[in-house]
Amino acid sequence: MNIVYISFGSNIGDREKAIEEALDLIDQNQMKITKRSNIYETEPYGYTEQPVFLNGAVEVETKLTCREVLEKLLNIEKEVGRVRKFKWGPRLIDLDIIFFNDEIYDEEDLKVPHTDMQNRDFVLKPLNELCPDIIHPVLKKTIKELLEDLKMS
Predict the structure, then answer these.
(1) Active site amino acids
(2) 121: in domain
C-alpha cells in the first residue's frame, strides 16, 4: 500500500463545499483518506492580488501509482469545477501531491516531493499535524524542521 500526502486549497466560490467535494471524490477514487488536518485560512502565495485561501492536507492510502494519483487528482479538480487561467491564480480547488511514500519523481509534469513545499507555510503547517517526523527525501529534514526553518527565515 502506498502512503500519499496531498495538500488542498480553495479561494473562490464556496471554499468549504469545494474542499469537501474534492475530499469525498478522493475517497471514491481508489484512495482512502486515513488522516486529515485542520483547515487554515492563509494568504495567497505567488500572485497575491486574490482572495485568501482555505488550506489543509490529507494522508491517503492507495494501490495506485504516483502517476495514477496525479491523473485522478487532476480529474477531481475538473469535476469540482477548477478552471486554470494562469499560474498561482484564484482557484475553486487545488490538489497537490506533496509526498508519495519516500519516492522522488522528477518528470516534466510530475515532481514529487512538491518542489516548493519547504517555502509554503500553508503546506507545512497541515503536514506538521499529520506527519511531523517524516523526512523529506531530498532535503533530509523532517516536516517539523522545515516548518521551524521557514518560521526563522
Answers:
(1) 82, 91, 94, 96
(2) no
pLDDT of residue 46: 73
Q: What is the pTM of this model?
A: 0.94
- Which spans in 42-142 are helix H? 66-80, 121-130
Torsion sign (Cα): 110, 15, 32, 29:
negative
pLDDT tens string 61-86: 999 999 999 999 999 999 997 766 65
Quick check: is 124 in a domain?
Answer: no
Structural domain for 55, as ranges: 2-116
User: How many angstroms from the chain centroid is the CA of residue 105?
Assistant: 16
Residue 139 lies in a domain: no
Contact 104, 138 (CB under 8 A): yes
Structural domain total, the chain? 1
Query: Positive or negative CA dihedral for 88, 113, 82, 93?
Result: negative
Give the DSSP H or E segment for 147.
Answer: helix 143-152
CATH number at residue 27: 3.30.70.560
Q: Which cell numbers in the block locate residue 47?
A: 500572485
